[in-house]
Write a structure and sequence with these properties.
Largest sheet of chain A: 8 strands, mixed
CATH class of chain A: Alpha Beta
Mean pLDDT of chain A: 86
CATH architecture of chain A: 4-Layer Sandwich
Low-confidence stretches of chain A: 1-21, 183-208
Radius of gyration of chain A: 18 Å
Number of helices of chain A: 8
Number of strands of chain A: 15
Structural class of chain A: alpha+beta
Order of helices and strands of chain A: EEHHEEHEHHEEEEEHHHEEEEE
Shape of chain A: globular
Number of domains of chain A: 1
Strand content of chain A: 15-25%
Oligomer: homodimer
């Protein structure tokens, strides 16, 4: 059985929680992949990330432990990351070219294959909640912008002012990106080819890879049901009503009890073209790949071959977890079927044991 | 080798065109699936459909014959259907709840897995052309609404007035849908479960299934490259910035030289949840299914089991064609690798020979 385990890089305890008498349950989250390097990270910032990642994983795990659904667990874990300014989702969403914040999210139920997705919303505090409302209370799957907000209003969701999303760091990043020379703007939406390792025009290590700051969660509940969800602010300086992979069912999010649940974080254009989340599930269902093999095939081979980068978290119907990324780091945490919490940031935190 | 063939239902000739000395090439198109019944169709209307379908298939085939790319063929065939008021795409787009027309389209290149998609545009005469521009001239894959139109403007595309899309039939249909009782509104976006055969509140047989009027095309060129494209006006009376499957890469459109090219037309919500186009390709690539087997598995089994309906056209890397639908009819045409043109509308036009 392939199993990813990675050591805890800080003082976060590797606590073991009681497992239930029912079917195994487990949860995994990510807070974005990218050029996350230890030499660019202060101890206090590292600790802040580890704290929120731990809290988010624990929030979802508590729901699973109490017999709640994987959908509720996914939503709760993502809410915690959306409410933190550290991640590019909810409160910490990056800015568009015209100085706004446009948020995308999606959620999928592996039992029914039901799904909800929204893109381009500007006044929704927790986009994953609206994706859930779309799934549960509309006949549609995918809504955009003001239309999606009109639906939110009809459902009794409070719409908030855009000023909620203002964070100085994200705004400064927009200005940096817009003032950066075309040739070196590694975060610019005007580059599709691979980024050269020499391209590093940004001085804020946290924001350097803002296009990768998406958050996501996959979970298996005691009823054997998988779920996946993803929430993002998209790409800094995005224009043209750009939609990335996060709200695209099959690309950024997919869940199917027959195979696995997947949430992606990466260069959205490549993840859409690769139909990444569904591709991993399909390799398992039709090709007999294990979760780890399928995830590796897509993230270590297919996406880099196209010129893209990023990562995924995935969970199969037995609660096995895969966390694959081809970037230097990915904010991530998991509580496996044994109840063990593990949190990591850098590539070196990953310890593959088979 | 599974081969779909269906008889020509009218005076359209089954012309045979020269095949090239190069690799085989072929094209297939659809103009929407739905409750299309011969008893509801006048001879003149039937002839009008057959004429446009034939012209559209021939336009793309001519490009392939001259050594053009499958992408150019897909675009040319779809343009012809977009310019006809008969189909729910371009000129004949249905109306939204607030009396507008919002168009979606996508295109994908099976050689590079490059793709372009747009949704919710209101001023673009030929949405498939804008999807192609997104693919060829932007670093993004998926754009929405005014943002996508801003990109179109920057690319020198003329934006047109919404009045271009006004057709009395489509507008009357909107009024019919909006005035129909909730319980019998089979075209209402407020129904997710299967439609009862007894639900038929609309008197215009052409418009009865307006949510299925999407157009699409798949093609194989002499260089062995597959391509797929889809264009639609969406669902009559749609609200909330609803996005269907047509612009979603993996759901409504997918092309990959390793497997096949697919364009879908159906109840978009189910096709998104089923990641239909990529699912067919994945069954072939990982599961060893033939094109026909994979298409049948998805359209005859998976989608009806979920409660949805619709159809697909698909082509494998040898130019084999599958046209699967679980509705009474699907407007369709093909010119196979032998250069034989076939056109059909009703289920009875399909003759499966193995």
């Amino acid at each position: 059985m392939p199993l990813i385990a990675f050591s805890c890089v800080s003082s976060i305890k590797n606590e073991v929680y009681e497992t239930s008498n029912h079917q195994d349950f487990a949860i995994a989250i990510h807070g974005g992949a990218g050029t996350i390097l230890k030499e660019n990270m202060s101890d206090s910032l590292e600790q802040a990330y580890l704290n929120v990642l731990s809290q988010a994983a624990l929030a979802g795990h508590q729901i699973l432990k109490n017999g709640g659904s994987s959908l509720d667990a996914v939503q709760a874990s993502i809410n915690l990351m959306e409410d933190s300014p550290l991640f590019n989702a909810g409160k910490g969403a990056v800015f568009t070219n015209d100085g706004h914040n446009e948020l995308d999210a999606s959620i999928m139920d592996g039992a029914s294959l039901n799904a909800g997705a929204i893109a381009g919303v500007k006044q929704v505090k927790n986009p994953i909640d609206l994706a859930r409302l779309v799934m549960d209370h509309s006949e549609h799957v995918f809504m955009y912008g003001e239309g999606a907000e009109a639906f939110a209003g009809e459902q009794g969701m409070d719409l908030i002012d855009q000023s909620y999303f203002f964070t100085q760091r994200r705004y400064d990043h927009l200005i940096q990106v817009q003032q950066a020379p075309e040739t070196s703007a590694s975060n610019s939406p005007n580059i599709r080819g691979p980024i050269s390792p020499n391209q590093s025009p940004f001085y804020d290590p946290i924001l350097k890879n803002a296009k990768f700051g998406t958050v996501g969660c996959v979970a298996l509940d005691q009823f054997g049901n998988l779920a996946a969800g993803t929430s993002t602010g998209g790409m800094t300086n995005k224009r043209f009503g750009r939609i990335g992979d996060a709200p695209v069912i099959g690309a950024g999010t997919y869940a199917n009890n027959q195979s696995c649940a997947v949430s992606a974080t990466g260069w959205g254009e490549y993840f859409i073209r690769g139909v990444v989340a569904h591709d991993i599930a399909a390799m398992m269902e039709y090709g007999g790949y294990t979760l780890e093999q399928a995830a590796s095939q897509v993230i270590d081979k297919k996406i880099p071959k196209m010129g893209g980068d990023g990562g995924i978290i995935a969970m199969d119907h037995d609660g096995r977890i895969s966390m694959k990324f081809n970037t230097p780091g990915m904010y991530r945490a998991q509580i496996d079927t044994k109840g063990k919490l593990k949190v990591g940031i850098y590539k070196s935190d990953a310890l593959l044991t088979k």
